[in-house]
Amino acid sequence: MPPDLKQVVRLQDLDNRLAELAREIAALPKHVAEIERKLVSHQRKLDADRAALAANQKERKKCEGDIQVQEQKISKLKDQMIGAKITNDQYRAFQHEIEFCQKEIRKCEDRILELMGESEALDRNVKAAEAALKTEKEQVDGETVRARERTAADKKAAQELQTERAVIVQSIDRALYQRYERVRASRKGVAVAEVVEGRCTACQIVLRLQYFQDLKRGDQVLPCESCQRILYYNPPQAVEDFDGGTRVTMS
Question: What is the dihedral of CA 226, 227, 228, 230, to 10 degrees?
């Protein structure tokens, strides 16, 4: 394989890794924003449950106050019935008023029982949501710290790769580098393809036999006749079997 072609293959590896790092760096803030959005949503639900519980308790106090008011009215009415001479019609009017007050008291008592039942469920929801939210906040804080650390590590790795890339770009033939960039721009970032068993692994087109032989000689840089990617070929490696003294070809 020509030395410049080896450098181009390495350049493709670097660009692939740089693209991965760029995607990860871009994705991490989105990931943090998403879990923070869920946290805010759960916080709002907790706030709504707390508000409902507070409204429940407020209405219960109002009902209890209304009961006291009605009881005071009944007490005054009974005092008036005892302390003054009244006619039968007046007596019946007092009784009707007392019965109305007692009816209002029963309504308030029934409503208090309903509110107590609702309050128990709301209180359970609030306590469970508070515990879950505390755990979730800890998880979000941990995820945020890890995301920042990972982003810093990715940026450092990308900087190191960019440094190596710059060295390679300076060392290879300018025309070859320009060809690499043109193909990379037109082929979704992949400008180099390995040939395995006479086939371009990028577009899966089988090379012409003579063209494949020219590539195997390794004295020139050839593009795929179909996809125009820069081709490279790794010949099978021969490994000595020291036990048996035979040569085994590894492809």
Answer: -110
Contact indicator for 206, 199 with CB cutoff of 8 Å = yes
Evaluated on CA atoms 148, 151, 155, 156, the torsion sign reads positive
Q: Is the pTM of this model over 0.70?
A: no
Give the end of a domain, one of 171, 206, 239: 171
Q: Write phi, then psi, for 13 (nearest 5 degrees).
A: -60, -45
Token digits of residue 56: 């429940």
How many domains is the chain built from? 2
Of residues 31, 47, 1, 4, the one with CA closest to residue 178: 4
Task: Indicate whether 14 and 31 sit together in one domain.
Answer: yes
Q: In tens digits, what is the pLDDT along the chain, a chain of 251 residues?
A: 788 899 999 999 999 999 999 999 999 999 888 888 989 988 998 999 999 999 999 999 999 999 999 999 999 988 888 866 778 888 889 899 999 999 999 999 999 999 999 999 999 989 999 999 989 899 899 989 999 999 999 999 999 999 999 999 999 999 999 999 999 999 999 999 999 999 999 999 999 999 999 999 988 899 999 999 999 998 877 555 444 444 444 43
Distance, in Å, from the CA atom of 128 to the CA atom of 126, rounded to the nearest integer, reads 6
> Which range of residues forms the domain containing residue 213?
174-250
Cβ atoms of residues 14 and 137 within 8 Å: no
